[in-house]
């Protein structure tokens, strides 16, 4: 996968900062040791001089340099042993003045033999996760602020269950889903009329899942499927590139929240993009939360049997019930 330049630059900046901090720490240790045990400073300076001598000798053409190099090596070993002894005698660990790198493989440069090192890749992945979570405008929405009081507690005469009791089970299911996200295999389809809390509850799931360190993308169906279209048809290369990155995020993130499915215009292209989105994520074992106002009959009328079969078989369907909370809030003067 091509790396995003902006995020890679951010990851490199962080590595550079780590490197600078390590250098500062090294200088601090060196200053401390040299001031307390000046003999170590003298040893270090002699070791540097010996190193320069070796280089000079090996560059010299002709003559027998072997003996001279050997005697330098011996002196160097003796000095290093004395240095180690002094460090330990004075209560410092033997490697206290060794090069201080967070990653020994790349010595904090981020690259090994021209290839990106695992440490830089790890920082890059963290930047990707952060940027994805930024796309979620979570606001105040959390499981703690989800208020069951908005759902009527009058029992249904046929089922004997009130909308509040029913929505409590939906709420509990979503909470458990988020809390045990890593062990779940199924996706969720949140279905119901407008204003019943589908976007709210999916944002609650997103908050918990992204706090666990998983990458989460939130997008509406119109915008997500639009990215597939831009990726394919944009004439401006930078637009196509940006859309390609977005599509990668949509396909690869750990949790995709696709909001308002059914509000997009259905075309042959949007249907195929939706199929790609759902199917690719299933194949890669990635979970998706889809929100829609459409009933299962409406979904069947609108989408292909391949899409509907996946929505019914691979998604846990949760029905939302009650009265439009936007209206209730208006009546209560809360919005
Ligand atoms: N349980 C709840 N507690 C507090 N506020 C809620 C709750 N459910 C929904 N709301 C609020 O009610 C409004 C509508 O909720 P939301 O947007 O989640 O509905 P929706 O089911 O996604 O509707 P639509 O189908 O129109 O997208 C929002 O302002 C939301 O913050
Ligand atoms: Mg919504």
Folded structure, characterized:
The protein has 2 domains: 20-101; 135-331, P-loop containing nucleotide triphosphate hydrolases (Rossmann fold, 3-Layer(aba) Sandwich), CATH 3.40.50.300. It has 12 helices and 7 strands. It has helices spanning 5-36, 38-59, 66-89, 118-134, 163-179, 198-211, 221-233, 237-252, 268-283, 296-302, 305-313, 325-331, and strands at 111-112, 115-116, 187-191, 216-220, 255-261, 287-292, 315-319. The strands form 2 sheets. The protein has a 5-stranded parallel sheet with strand order 4-5-6-3-7, sandwiched between helices. Strand 5, helix 9 and strand 6 form a beta-alpha-beta unit. Bound molecules: adenosine-5'-triphosphate and magnesium ion. Magnesium ion binds at residues 198-199, 259-260, 291.
Distance between the termini: 45 Å
Largest sheet: 5 strands, parallel
Q: What ligands are attached or bound here?
A: adenosine-5'-triphosphate, magnesium ion
Classify the fold: give the CATH topology of the largest domain: Rossmann fold
Radius of gyration: 31 Å
Sheet/helix structural class: alpha/beta
Provide the succession of SSEs. HHHEEHHEHEHHEHEHHEH
Annotated CATH architecture of the largest domain? 3-Layer(aba) Sandwich
Main sheet strand line-up:
4-5-6-3-7
Strand content: 5-15%
